[in-house]
Design goal:
The chain is 3% helix and 35% strand. By secondary structure, it is an all-beta fold. Strands 2, 6, 9, 10, 12, 14, 15, 17 and 18 form a nine-stranded mixed sheet that branches. Strands 19, 20, 21, 22 and 43 form a five-stranded antiparallel sheet that branches.
Length: 775
């Protein structure tokens, strides 16, 4: 699944040179995104600078004039004095547009000293509106709201004004499926309906019921939000979430009201099931909401009806990040229906289930099989940050054998030799060329002595600086490849501190030019519990990790129940929280917002009384977006009312999860970039769409896709091996030639290289990125 990124920083008009008669986009700042399961399969950016669905482009939009003879930017050589100010009318307008309509239009005119002149008109946001370059007639797209800057240029002099477009969308019943795939979600596959579960959108509501839903609601003590959570930060381009609530009675309809500055949605839907406890936001409404948002709060209100009376309201406030994420999530599934290689499912002596490594990729609401298959259980994986290399274990040889996959080539896996445990649970270097072995007995597998191994050959690499006897557990390289963090499972005492204690978090520096490790130090020793599964932030200066607070007593770093059975001992297991710590001050902080402390719903009947201690195995997307880092992690928490069984019932051999989903799933949370040490910079998490609903899913690696060679079509610079995505002859093309300045996601060395450094772009791990969340 590719979560797509989009730059929120537009180019200055002064940086663009528009030739009359051409539709011109300004450089590679037209950061839209590659297609993704998170964007309902939308296509890429076109030559006009806007996406096929009318969303997302920072392009300067110009409609070619019918008969221009004035040269560049309307310089027609007229008699008006050069340097005279241009007056642009009308100014600072606001229009209200019904979704899908291209009206009302606005006609702009330019004068110099009160005399009309043949200026050239353009707008800075082609996804919101287009303007005829010569007539000045502006036409809204009808799909995205927001503020457009209109510019009139004449004889080298420009004038600007703004236009606010407010889009209104009303649905009564399930919206029709648009030609671009935007209406109702699919009928449900491995990922569930729309990639999130539920029954899909309901039917229309009659006029009297609509009137009830608009009336004064009564209080229902049994009514409460279950999912999403209040104060969630969402990225753009995500599949629409499933709204879920507890119901004190059988409702017959729901009114969904979403509102922000430039977009309003009103949806009336009949009940889809009895009891009626969840309903999706239609994808078209979700896309319009996401891309119309300019950083302001989103107000969410639900009102329900039953027997002629309305109930509620339920209200929440959300944030929309100004960027999209890109990449693929690789995760392991135990219980997948995409492969059969293990026996047997609960209640059967013949029916197999699958253990495999899956991927959530663009354009899909379901995962895809990557490693494993019928007769081949391949799980317990690691992935390089650049998305080029995967290593996974093979259960055919007692979990000792490993396979490696060239993800860039998409070829079949290759067995690593020898078939022992040296490649298991390793830290793969960011470029996928080698790995550092795991010395801790993760699930009774651990390699000693700790060393480097080349990929894909598996040959040992000579290195220096590793302390004698060091056994690192769950190691992870930083995105820049200059540090490695790990559980200090075992090792000698020395100047850096005490001997390995199986619970501390430690770190070393690494020089990739000489394969030299140095500066070994203990980063954090928890007063109780075990620090495991570290993952670096994109800034390379801090680590997110799991603090295991209660062990299952069976495997180091595991999340499972205390036994392999269907008995009482399978009802409890490992408990853990996610924390973060910066390298400079070594200040540990629990991530309360991400963990869900104090606000997660409970369900005592299935042992969900404290889900905030059911969070495990974090990894961080190596590229930030929208001012946030994005953490993907395993959780056994309730997924609203869709996945509600005992948190440890995830093994298909001992519990039936074929029709009732296990709660062992992947979640994602925003994390404020460049946060101060000692604070909690996390936000409430959201369920990762398109993962297999009826399976136990864990250990998600959200990495970038393999880079594209120079000359390939692109949308953002981090897609390109050369580092830049540039506008060449009207199309966005991968380049290795540096532009005058780097746009968001382009390669950089310092923050001064970034085009928007003066408005918040900074060089983060070699890419220009927004330096933090909106203030």
């Amino acid at each position: 699944m590719c979560m797509k990124r989009f730059s929120g920083v537009g180019l200055l008009l002064a940086m663009c040179v528009a030739v009359a008669g051409l539709a011109v986009a300004c450089g590679s700042a037209t950061h839209s995104a590659s297609g993704s399961a998170f964007d309902a399969g939308r296509g890429g950016i076109g030559d006009s600078g806007s996406l096929p669905d009318g969303t997302l482009s920072d392009a300067i939009s110009i409609v070619a004039p019918s008969g221009d003879s004035g040269g560049l930017l309307g310089d027609d050589g007229g008699s008006s004095p050069v340097g005279a100010p241009v007056d642009l009318e009308p100014t600072d307008q606001t229009i209200d547009v019904n979704y899908g309509d291209n009206t009302p239009t606005v006609t702009y005119s330019a004068t110099v000293n009160g005399v009309s002149v043949a200026a050239t008109f353009l707008v800075d946001r082609g996804e919101i509106a287009a303007i005829d370059a010569s007539s000045g007639v502006l036409v809204p797209t009808g799909t995205i709201g927001g503020v457009v800057t209109v510019t009139a240029s004449y004889q080298g002099i420009s004038a600007t004004t703004t236009l606010t477009v407010r889009v209104h969308l009303v649905d009564n019943g399930a919206p029709a499926v648009a030609a671009d795939g935007g209406g109702a979600p699919d009928s449900g596959g491995a990922g569930g309906n729309g990639g999130v579960g539920g029954e899909g959108p309901g039917g229309p509501v009659d006029a009297p019921t609509q009137a009830v839903l608009q009336g004064q609601p009564a209080v229902d003590p049994g009514l409460a939000w279950l999912y999403p959570y209040d104060q969630t930060v969402w990225p753009r381009g995500l599949l629409a979430p499933l709204l879920q609530w507890s119901a004190g009675q059988n409702y017959d309809a729901v009114f969904i009201h979403l509102q922000e500055t430039s977009f309003e949605y009103q949806g009336y839907f009949a009940a889809t099931a009895t009891p009626f406890v969840h309903h999706p936001i239609p994808q078209a409404a979700w896309d319009a909401l996401s891309y119309s948002n300019a950083g302001e709060d989103v107000s969410v209100t639900l009102v329900f009806s039953a027997a002629g009376q309305s109930y509620g309201p339920l209200t929440e406030t959300w944030k929309i990040a100004s960027g999209r994420l890109e990449g693929t999530v690789y995760y392991q599934s135990y219980g997948t229906a995409l492969a059969q290689n293990l026996c047997c499912v609960y209640g059967s002596t013949t029916q197999e289930f699958g253990g495999a490594t899956l991927a959530i990729r663009h354009g899909l609401t379901d995962p895809m099989l990557v490693a494993g298959g019928d007769g081949q259980c391949r799980v317990c994986h690691a992935v390089s940050a650049d998305g080029s290399r995967l290593v996974t274990q093979d259960s055919a040889d007692g979990d000792l054998a490993s396979w490696t996959y060239n993800l860039a080539a998409g070829t079949a896996g290759t067995a690593l030799t020898p078939a022992d445990d040296r490649f298991a649970w390793a830290a793969i270097y960011p470029d996928g060329t080698f790995l550092l072995s795991d010395g801790a007995p993760m699930f009774k597998v651990g390699w000693s002595p700790t060393e480097l191994f080349s990929l894909p050959s598996g040959a040992a690499l000579a290195s220096t600086g590793i302390p004698a006897g060091l056994k690192p557990g769950s190691p992870a390289f930083s995105p820049d490849g200059l540090h490695v963090a790990f559980n200090y499972y075992a090792g000698p005492a020395g100047d850096a501190g005490p001997a390995g204690d199986m619970k501390s978090l430690a770190i070393m520096d690494f020089d990739p030019t000489t394969y030299t490790f140095s500066n070994f130090q203990v980063l954090y020793t928890p007063p109780s519990g075990t620090a495991v599964w570290p993952s670096f932030l994109p800034t390379n200066d801090a680590v997110v990790f799991e603090l295991e607070t209660l062990s299952n007593g069976r495997d180091f770093g595991g999340t499972r129940s205390t036994c392999d059975s269907s008995g009482v001992c399978s009802n409890s297991g490992t408990q853990a929280e996610l924390w973060w710590i910066d390298l400079a001050t070594k200040t540990p902080v629990r991530l309360d917002a991400l963990n869900g402390l104090g606000y997660l719903p409970t369900l005592a009947s299935t042992a969900h009384s404290s889900d905030a201690v059911l969070n495990y195995e974090p990894t961080v997307n190596p590229v930030p977006s929208g001012g946030y880092a994005w953490v993907v992690f395993t959780s056994r928490r309730l997924y609203g009312n869709v996945a509600t069984i005992n948190p440890y019932w995830s093994d298909p051999r001992f519990h039936d999860i074929s029709t009732t989903p296990t709660t062992k799933k992947l979640w994602v949370a925003a994390f404020d970039l460049n946060a101060n040490p000692g604070v909690d910079p996390s936000h409430p998490a959201f369920y990762l769409p398109a993962q297999e609903l009826l399976a136990g899913n864990s250990r998600g690696f959200w990495v970038v896709n393999p880079c594209l060679p120079t000359g390939s079509t692109c949308e953002t610079g981090d897609q390109c091996c050369g580092g830049y995505c540039r506008n060449i002859d009207g199309g966005l093309i991968c380049s290795d030639q540096p532009p005058a300045c780097s746009n968001e996601f382009d390669k950089c060395t310092t923050s001064a290289d970034c085009c928007g450094a003066f408005v918040g772009l900074a060089c983060v791990n070699g890419r220009c990125a927004q330096s933090g969340p909106p203030k």
